[in-house]
Amino acid sequence: MDIRKFFKGTLKRKKESSSESDEEKKIERSLSQNSLAQAGSSKVENIPEDKDVCCNDLGKWVGRTSLMTTSQKLDMLKRCWVPPESYDFVKDAEAANLKLIFCGTHDLPLRGKENHEGILEDLLILRIESGEQDLKQHLQYGKKNAMYTSPQIQNEIIDLCGLVVKNEIIQVVKKAYAYSVMADESCDIAGKEQLSIGIRFYDESKNMIREEFLGFVELIAMDANTIASEIDKFLENAGLEPDRCIGQGYDGCSTMAGSIGGVQKKLREKYKKALYFYCASHRLNLVVNDLNQVPEIRNTIAKYSGILEPVANALQSKTIDMYTCTNHIKRIISVIKDHRGNADRESQNILDISYRTAAAIGTDLQIPRTVGRQQHRSNHPAESVCDFWKRSVIIPYLDSLISALEQRFSNDHLPAFSLMSLHPSSMLNMKLVDFKEKSQDFCQYYDLPLFEHEAELWYKLWKDKGKQSEDLEKLDFTDVLKEANTFFPATRKAIIISLSQPCTTSNIERSFSTLRRVKTWFRSTMTENRLNGLCMLSVHRKIVKEKKEIVQEVLKRFCEEPRRLIVK
Known about the structure:
Elements: H1 3-7, H2 20-31, H3 51-56, H4 70-78, H5 89-105, H6 119-129, H7 133-141, H8 151-175, E1 179-187, E2 193-203, E3 208-219, H9 224-237, E4 245-250, H10 254-257, H11 263-267, E5 275-278, H12 280-291, H13 305-315, H14 322-341, H15 343-360, H16 385-408, H17 414-418, H18 424-427, H19 432-445, H20 451-465, H21 469-473, H22 477-484, H23 489-500, H24 506-518, H25 528-539, H26 541-546, H27 549-560
Parallel strand pairs: 1-4, 4-5
Antiparallel strand pairs: 1-2, 2-3
Helix pairs in contact: 5-6, 5-8, 5-27, 8-25, 8-27, 12-16, 13-14, 14-16, 15-16, 19-20, 22-23, 24-25
């Protein structure tokens, strides 16, 4: 600490109306009151206080120098107390630190109405009652400037926990060849707009796709300039290279997706390769909304919801890639088109089920009566019940479903979707010349000139394997990547780019559930740093539990900060 601040008294010095000995007694009386910890009710052996420690501990006199005489200040400078070399600074902080991390990873509030009423304080008392004598002695007899339980220390440790976990993820991202940024916005309980930012990349050390939440940013405005600036600042502070950003994943609102003034357009001015990907989960939801335009089936989607529901669940997976997502949507469209081509058969199957249901509840299916002037529904000409419901409900429903799927899941990004031709099931369905021609799209866009020399070898490699098309379709892109690790460096980079492209923002939206658990009505005034630290601990609790060195890194950084307590 700056010794000049020590001599600069913050309180007005009182007039010396008594002798120096009376003043010293008053000082010692005030120092003897230890109000920081009253944990446990059982007695422990008294720990003798060193007189030099009590009177010459510099930290205890900060803000109270008006009570000291000039001779005491000079004596403080000559004989200032310094902890012995055996003093364990980390051990004092570790006890409270571990309890704090426990509360953070389990979404528990640390403090109650008063500072000494919270879960953190109760956990410390529980440890003391379980026989933790070191902790008990520390809280009862430790120095006031080294308790490590104050709200300020809690906020500092929480902030450090969030930063250490975030840096742990960022270091892995920096080793990846490519990454994509994802973002979504929600309002917290205090009415503040929180922008959740995450990242998607391929972790080569674990051979898996990872989507990780990196934190919240409070938005002061909801326009495209503000959001784009905050995302850019976030990535810049994280030290991520713009050239490695190959994708942006957002929802489809005009502020984010606008092709002229949207967030994705503004970020592409700096992140040249970062194509915008419309969240597939949002698109699927809009498909269902489009189907509701048919009034008769607005609340009765049953048969085909069984097809769409697994897709919605699959799209929420962190490891799904663009190839798997697109191919499955194509299969769904193919099946529905087959049903549309055999509308008579499908209509009869649906009506057979309807007849059985009607018989079970004691009713019958009939053609609605026809009137000359119909206002709320069409008078479809029909000779039978099956014909009427086929023309009025089933065919409009199938046409709407096919149209919505094709429109919402069209291949808008030629360079990105051309990467899917690297998968052997797609590649072997075309001639070598066509494959080379299609590969030009991503080679030029992603700057992979060496792939032109590998294209023929890559094609021949899978051709010579002689696998059936059914077996090739079962291969994930991560399995295909293993074949390219040794002799196909450019192909390997292209596949990693494809794996890093965002399919959905589902993982980012999960962070909003954490936001609502952490920032409640009773905790609505917490600062942004505290909110980010607690949410990082909650979302990444698995990382915190698996990597014990994270706790040690938090303690290391905490101990490196300047403290009132000076350690040799």
